[in-house]
Design brief:
The chain is α/β, with parallel strands linked by helices and 142 residues long. It has a single domain, classed as Rossmann fold (3-Layer(aba) Sandwich). Helix content is 27%, strand content 25%. Strand 6 and strand 7 form a beta hairpin.
């Protein structure tokens, strides 16, 4: 467990966490709106050579993909999925989530993972829980 006290702290923690990631990893991100999930992913993206300014919340796009430029031996792309607006998994199946979850060259991040539990229940995953404490303070549990 760690506590961050600013956006930049959360990004830095994401960069540190990224050092252990490899293609094929599936990371489940749990936490309320505004708890730091996308900010954390920005740090991971930055570690893999993607400008944090390019990283946007996939709340409305559902899925954002980013090609890595650094550490490509560990992953070719990062896939950031936000299931908040979904009613069921059919929409994700139609756009290829099952292939993304099985791609050994991608690292997949899923916000609101309970909505796609049927797709991840038999896969090895890592869960990270985010909790918004005070104005800029976030508690992150690995």
């Amino acid at each position: 467990m760690t506590t961050t006290s600013s956006t930049e702290d959360t990004i830095e923690f994401g960069k540190k966490f990224a050092q252990q990631l490899h293609g094929g990893d599936i990371i489940l991100l749990e936490g309320e709106l505004g708890s730091g999930k996308t900010t954390f992913v920005k740090g991971i993206c930055e570690y893999f050579g993607i400008s944090k300014e390019e990283v946007r919340s996939p709340t409305f796009t559902i899925i954002n993909t980013y090609s890595t430029t650094e550490n490509q031996h560990r992953a070719e792309q990062l896939v950031h999925i936000d299931t908040y607006r979904l009613k069921d998994t059919e929409e994700l199946k139609e756009i290829g989530i099952e292939e993304m979850l099985s791609d050994p060259n991608s690292i997949v991040f899923i916000e609101w993972p309970a909505k796609v539990e049927e797709l991840t229940e038999y896969k090895e995953t890592k869960t990270i829980k985010f909790e918004h404490k005070e104005e800029n303070e976030r508690m992150i549990k690995l």
